[in-house]
């Protein structure tokens, strides 16, 4: 298995060869020179002053003159920033080098300056800059390269636009140098320089390996597939949630392979004229075939190739048929790969997904912690970060975020840093102080602020929140808290323990008990404590009047939860959607029964790798369908009883922690006399006492105002009602009421007891003292025999 895991990314491993060298910065200012150690030059059979061809990333190469440097390490090559930019590499990247002895002399070359480097310059550029640079130096040039020339006090950048007779040549004394034409805009040059490559994609190493196998191998080495006797893959379908980088990957593949890239945006090829949409598709494939090797990339494939049996428009059906015939008609000799992207793979016509068309489907999923860290490093590589920034912590706390969300998070953190320095910035000024610019550095607090504002895009339409309720806000329920921590926090924080003991964690809990005992509050606290996303589902909201829509709602919510894992799903009032099946006679078309069936299948279908926990809360456990309560679904049934005296005291303290309380208010006595009150009832007592204090305070202020108007002296510093007093609580207790009757409590406790007796063996279970294999089949006296004598069950 490990060997297979290694092979899946084998294509990413770079082969070690003597001509592959690590880039390091050069102190030499010359754009035409690279330095190697003498030992490496001898190994590669190179001599001082030889012309060499260097190959970098994104199919970029350039010509340079090699010179030995004694202090250069054996495996390194030194080049300055200009050469690195031409090769699209950075320091510590790898380039390959080879001798290039047969370079021709150039007849003519055309060079143009880059606009921002020649601003304000007067005089002849050729005489001042180019003539001294090229005169009798026999410099090698490559079409598309940029070089820097210093003259006087200025440095001017030029780009080689055209060379004759070959793309790379040496500049001889008789080479004609043309400089006619408008300067090249910096933006155009920068956009080419910043073209997306594999380095700009994080969080999908395995998927990149698959794409390289299917795209780069057939385009670069078609002979591999011919030799082995199979057709290379023709089509690749990338699917996954929005913002994971599907389009970005396609652009990176095109840039890195140097293939011709033809982009088709799904909706753009549609036309109102009959036959024109198909004609647009045919033209795209014709252009790609003429410019091979090429990649055709169809973005938003579901817009032009929906399922034919479900579309009413004739145009869509014809386009699907045209796409099928075009993909089948691709010649095996034509070096064309068709890539497509969609976030709705199941709405694409099934004929497109068979072998020979889009036969490879690669899911670009939501990145895990390591993937998120890679993405954050890529987005923050050009950002000015302060020393306290810990990107690993940010990656750990951004569950469910895709690449686009993380990019948005970085820009929000940067904006927050600018807001903090806003008092130093005057919008009306033409220039901002250099000191202010130097002081800008994004801090960890800026990232924390951005994280509070950011939510996973997969869950934007579902209200997902990490609640701000902590264990301290919940009074009592100590054993329940411990049980919940083990159930939800352990799988998120200690997954290795579950691997060690070879068991899957439990996936669901049902809270039951009288109303107002803190079931919803507990669910919020557990989501906050383990920093999981929290989706609250109100039972009645799932049911709609349309046939099949209620089940679709359930499916959508579970899909979103899986996308944002780890996620706590909280079904409040579970009894409203999970009544025992068959009991709801008046139900229109059995919608509630179908919803339960859908919930059951989703619970069983929760992907093992996804940390999705389901918490249900109900105060009618007796009417819930028993299938939901079986082990493997909501298997942990936790009774949330009315609070005991100690818990009531803790609830009072939690509720009154932010209120000014008079020292003579005896909270312990309040807890003692409120036997049988639920948490909600106790909260109501606190609210009523607070309301009475507010009323008295307002009345006292009005009285003082009247005294002031009557010309009487009033002590302004005197606060008539500084805190909630004993009298306020006494008044509140006169109106206090219990929301749960004794009969209700007996019902819950009976249900809890019957559950206990039906579930376990109590304290009776013991393994037999002797070896079980020795015990006779009838079950000896030492054996643990729990079978009822009267039981006529077939399997007992």
From TrEMBL:
> GO cellular component terms?
cytosol; nucleus; VCP-NPL4-UFD1 AAA ATPase complex
Q: What is its EC number?
A: 3.6.4.6
**Molecular function via GO:** ATP binding; ATP hydrolysis activity; polyubiquitin modification-dependent protein binding
Q: Name one Pfam family in it.
A: Vps4_C
Every CDC48 N-terminal subdomain domain range:
20-103
Catalyzes what?
ATP + H2O = ADP + phosphate + H(+)
All copies of the AAA+ ATPase domain together span 232-368, 505-644
Signal peptide per UniProt: none
Instruction: Enumerate the Gene Ontology biological process terms.
Output: autophagosome maturation; mitotic spindle disassembly; retrograde protein transport, ER to cytosol
Membrane-spanning segments: none
The chain positions of domain CDC48 read 120-186
Please list where the region (Disordered) is annotated: 772-796
Looking up InterPro entries in the UniProt record yields: AAA+_ATPase, AAA_ATPase_CDC48, AAA_ATPase_domain, AAA_lid_3, Asp_de-COase-like_dom_sf, ATPase_AAA_core, ATPase_AAA_CS, Cdc48_dom2
Record's keyword terms, sorted: ATP-binding, Nucleotide-binding
State what protein this is by name: vesicle-fusing ATPase
Q: Which organism is it from?
A: Lygus hesperus
